[in-house]
Amino acid sequence: MDQNAKKQAVAKAAIQYVENDSIVGVGTGSTVNFFIEELGKIKDKIEGAVSSSEASTKQLKALGIEVFELNEVSNLSVYIDGADEVTEHKHMIKGGGAALTREKIVAGAAKTFVCIVDESKRVPVLGRFPLPVEVIPMARSFVARELVKLGGDPEYRQGVVTDNKNVILDVHNLEILNPRELEQTINNIPGVVTNGIFALRGADIVLSATETGVDTFK
Ligand code: 5RP
């Protein structure tokens, strides 16, 4: 089974977590794109979605799924999103698609976070995937110097502007042994909007597609 087939399998499995007549929190990325396709098939059973990016919003609307502003929604039962890395503690690195800030906001607002990955994303320790940090443009060089002090090797993601009109630094060579602490430390640097460690609010459920099926970790 190739990686896309696994992404499709895990996207299908995530549909069971979507409640009838609910508004669904929707993440961003190639795995989520498969999930949005599945959501399109049951669109008459849901009220709509809250989206974490302009890209997902476009795909949702193209399928006829109503997209609500988060400010209009008081009750979000589930948020479904992919990850770049996920541990057995259900801590993640996210932001490979530069949507980390809105993803973190919608994840924070949801009762249950279901993370959908293929098994290649499962790691013992976070950090091999360069950690994305969303930064206010004028703070880019200052924040980069602060990240070096933390032991990282930040690289400006050239040509990328986030949906919030900010820039991304990808931090290489971090071995993230204490993700909750590092998440807070990086977020405390002035000019950082947020970073791609999702540990303070990790996933509640991880669905991981393997050669033989979809494993569930709670
Ligand atoms: C986007 C994300 C994605 O969830 C993450 O990059 C995984 O994407 P994919 O499913 O394409 O591997 O955090 O900001």
UniProtKB/TrEMBL annotation:
It catalyses: aldehydo-D-ribose 5-phosphate = D-ribulose 5-phosphate. Pathway: Carbohydrate degradation; pentose phosphate pathway; D-ribose 5-phosphate from D-ribulose 5-phosphate (non-oxidative stage): step 1/1. Keywords: Isomerase. Gene3D superfamilies: 3.30.70.260, 3.40.50.1360. Substrate binds at T28, G29, S30, T31, D81, G82, A83, D84, K94, G95, G96, G97, K121. It holds the Pfam family Rib_5-P_isom_A. GO terms for biological process: D-ribose metabolic process; pentose-phosphate shunt, non-oxidative branch. The keyword Cell inner membrane does not apply. InterPro entries: NagB/RpiA_transferase-like (IPR037171), Ribose5P_isomerase_typA_subgr (IPR020672), Ribose5P_isomerase_type_A (IPR004788). Catalyzes the reversible conversion of ribose-5-phosphate to ribulose 5-phosphate. This is Ribose-5-phosphate isomerase A.
